[in-house]
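Readers outside the structure-tokenisation community will struggle with the description of the input data as it stands. Showing the layout once, in full, would remove most of the difficulty. For illustration, here is how one protein appears when written out as sequence plus structure tokens:
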Amino acid sequence: MKCQSVTRHKAGCIVNDASDWAKKIMNSLRYSLELFQRVITVSLKTMKTLNEVLFEELQAIALAS
């Protein structure tokens, strides 16, 4: 969340605002939410894939015994 906070560099008067960047560049105020949703989706798919691989490996071990 620190990355999403608005910061201002005192010496250079530079403002770092991720929401402002999303509005200007991505044309979407929902950018942060959509990015977070994508990260969660990838994480869930990764967990599913790893569970499937583990299950197949356990089945192979059980059949070999």
